[in-house]
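quick one, 234 residues, struct below
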Amino acid sequence: MHGGLRVASYNVRGLGDDVAAAVRVVRALAPDVLCLQEIPRRFLFGHRVADFAAACGLYWPGGSRGSGGTTVMTSLRVETLAVGHEGLPVGYFDQQRGFAWQRVRLPDHGIVCVVSVHLSLRARERKVHIAQVLDRVPHDVPLVLAGDLNEESTGRAWRTLASRLRLVSPEGPTFPSRGPRTRIDAIFAERGLAVAGAGSTAPVQLDPDDLVAATDHLPVWTDLDLSATAAPAV
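---
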């Protein structure tokens, strides 16, 4: 069992590759909160997402329409308090973009808001959209934002995030999964949320063949120490 709140992010490319491999990857990660990008979005495809959540042993609240293929799933360790799936403005012929968020709580800890994003392939849109996401998500609790940014740390959207939040996922390329060369997937968190220290979490063992078969992105994850948000003893 890992300590803290394990947040993972994974672009699953429409679940169009080896879904069983993707399930094994998620189960090996054992996330408390899983931020997904590129879930199936066609009409009546919600059952595929629900089936994926069930196979991973996670809870999915549904209702992802309009979120640009983003959603958030949670483990049974986590209490889900509120859910949102929202769209972002794009050109008439451009791919739909949006974001998903959940307010979650571990027992005896405070509430955090976890956001899943998948930014545009256009640099100008990425910068505008990330500013809109940061403006529209709940601000009354600590924020964790994860996703496929479609740019590296030199990009303007990435720099906007880094000016507001702290990068908490490990360094290293995430795309493509076969011979990764660029880091475009990441997790950021409020500066007051600490990463769990070395030795406090069990190592994650991921099958390299599953990582390649599951999708074209590698997952990213981190364990956040929420002890600073723990409810006071009574």
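Helices lie at 19-29, 46-56, 123-136, 156-164, 208-214.
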